[in-house]
Amino acid sequence: MSIYLDKNSKIIVQGMTGGMGSKHTTLMVEAGSDIVGGVNARKAGTEVELGGKTLPVFGSVKEAMAETGANVSVVFVPPAFTKDACVEAIDAGIDLLVVITEGVPVQDSAEVWAYLEGKSTRMIGPNCPGIITPGESLAGITPHTIAGTGPIGLVSKSGTLTYQMMYELKDFGFSTAIGIGGDPIVGTSHIDALEAFENDPETEAIVMIGEIGGDAEERAAAYIKDHVTKPVVGYVAGFTAPEGKTMGHAGAIVSGSSGTAQAKKEALEAVGVKVGKTPSETAQLMREILSARG
């Protein structure tokens, strides 16, 4: 089992013929993903050879879905065109929309987020590594060789910390690892992923990685208290960050005590989540939980 993505997912890539799009389409094919085509209106009707597969290029998401049965789209288009690409995919009724692009204007993300209301599409991102169900499918840029299949569900704001946690716990493996992105407005929240992992029978325990800024982790803590029965361990990036300074991710800004790593750690620990001081310590906490289960 997995959440949102599995071996039956048929994936198209918006921006497949660009530099990043073609590179990562190749890597997704190598990961075993069922890539069925790409979308680029200017190159419609052509084909490209990537990862040993000949992939058709379509003029629109709607056309690509009609021709291939695609139900997932991964977006590798420049920030200025990301909103239009998202709206096109949502209008076409794609089930899962994974937006890798970073630097998307927050106003555009807000408009897309509002546009999703009442629609059937789930969006992950923007500014994220995407989602991987090891051994089955990759929609995004997570290195597929880091870890195999196992009982851990991972949801993370940070791409690099997603990779590190997968590597640290590769001896156990993952059901699905999802990088939700660090922007102020993202399509899928910690809470969305926690709910999906709670409902997935193959996921036995959950790692949640947050970072300073906003109140997503505090809200996730409240959700865990009321709705999550599986063990959760956490890590919050940014314990040494100075107040009032934006750190790396657009959403990682602290004002007063709100949004600090310490405040988030305390909120999570108050509901029984064990929080590590480092990614390695967090991995060890998970290792202890799973080892105790035998």
CATH class of the largest domain: Alpha Beta
Report the end-to-end length measured between terminal Cα atoms: 20 Å
Largest sheet: 7 strands, mixed
Tally of individual domains: 2
Q: Round the mean pLDDT to the nearest integer and report it.
A: 94
Radius of gyration: 19 Å
Write out the CATH superfamily name of the largest domain. Succinyl-CoA synthetase domains
What's this model, at a glance?
With 294 residues, the chain is of the alpha/beta class.
Characteristics of this structure?
alpha/beta; Rossmann fold
Question: How would you portray this structure in words?
Answer:
With 294 residues, this protein is an alpha/beta fold. It has 2 domains: 10-124, Rossmann fold (3-Layer(aba) Sandwich), CATH 3.40.50; 146-293, Succinyl-CoA synthetase domains (Rossmann fold), CATH 3.40.50. Helices cover 34% and strands 24% of the residues. Strands 3-4-2-1-5-6-7 form a 7-stranded mixed beta sheet. Strand 13, helix 8 and strand 14 (274-276) form a beta-alpha-beta unit. The longest helix has 15 residues, at 279-293. It is globular.
